[in-house]
Amino acid sequence: MRVLVVGAGVGGISIARGLLRDGHDVTVFEQRPEVRAGGGAVTIWSNGETVLAQLGVVMAGAGQELATVRVVTSTGRPMTTLDVAAIVNRMGAPVRMVPRRVLLERLLEGFPAERIRCNAQVVGVVNGNRGVRIDFADGSCAAGDLVIGADGLHSKVREIVGAQHAEPTGWCSWQGLAPLPDGADRNVAFVIVGEHGNLGLWPAGDTEVQWWFDLPWSRDFVRPERPIEVIRANFSGWSDLVDRVLATLTDDDLTHSPYPHFRHPIPGPGHGALTLLGDAAHTMPPTLAQGTNQALLDTMVLCRAISDFQHGVNRDLSRALRWYENTRRRRVAAVSRVASLQVSHGEAVLRPAAMVPDRVMTWVLATFLRVVSHRRMAAEISRGLNAATTAGSDEHAR
Fold it and tell me: β-pairing, 146-149 with 274-276?
């Protein structure tokens, strides 16, 4: 099929890779003049790592594999320690923190550059009986069999199809990458929770650490002239490691912050040969670090839906897309709800968590990830791809 993907971020390139792998004619349209990754780093949990392997993306050596996540209060009281290594053993794939630019570079390795068209600002989508058409701001257009809106939080495609706008959660993140302080454990990530904010320090590979500071935010927010002073006033003294990172940061490091937290209402079923993927479908707060992983799971399920349509399992493309949307809706809604719980932003309400044994908290998180990750489908797809690769190698050898 002729597939038109709007958005050249992680979600857009991922679904394009998957559909090219499956033999489709894919073009990616990006409104910016070049393909580039914004923000700092992302956490690739085992569910996302599995999909990247299915897409043929080599992640070895990218970022930093994690073994432990320690959660403490701003006064140094331990709350829980997540045994990430145990989650990895249960899920069968690593957990890593990787700069977003590195992830996008890995996704673009081997990806045909001519498949990406930049400076392509979408202004309209016509969803007809004989295919779809995208209209661009420069007066040009592109026709295809299917349009996938993967254009992020402020998705133009989502707006065109009439889905509800994202709503702010009342929080924002000041975030970026900084040099990893001397003596810091590369395999251990920290989350520190206070009464009126929280922060994270997650090793991101090489000599970098992803830092983020969460504070309340509202629509009438006025950005301070010296944001670093605000950050230091709120978070200095929380730990020696935090103070060492704060000492290296300047206002320039906060130029692109803050990033307000938003949550999309999960859209209902679409219509015709048009669907949404990733943040365009379900922007959520970064609390669980699942946004990128959920976009990758969208990719896996959507590729399966289109493959089933091509092989006659489902003879109607629109029905296949609705199957994809329905299959993802309940699971991604569960992730979004958990990520949006206000309990994640208050030391007092989290104190009872310190009474739960670490192994139980680790088991709960691993179980939650398994439940929302289409494990049976993922295993079936991975087996099929491995079998096809083996058969191809045998044929080539003959």
Answer: parallel
CA angle 124, 126, 130 (to 5 degrees): 155
Q: Please report the beta strands in 7-93, taking only residues with DSSP state E, as ranges in sequence order.
A: 25-29, 41-44, 64-65, 68-73, 78-83
Q: How far apart are CA 196 and CA 72, in angstroms?
A: 14
Amino acid at 308: D
Contact (CB, 8 A) for 127 and 4? no
By C-alpha distance, which of 87, 96, 84 is closest to 52?
A: 96
* Digit-coded pLDDT (tens) for 327-353: 999 999 999 888 887 655 566 666 677
Q: Tell me how far apart the alpha carbons of residues 101 and 112 are, in angstroms, rounded to a whole number.
A: 18
> Which tokens sit at 129?
């009986």
Q: 């104190």: which residue's tokens? A: 351
Tell me the pLDDT band of 306, cut-offs 50, 70 and 90. Answer: very high
Grade residue 163 by pLDDT with cuts at 50, 70 and 90.
Answer: confident
Both tokens assigned to 252: 């320039």
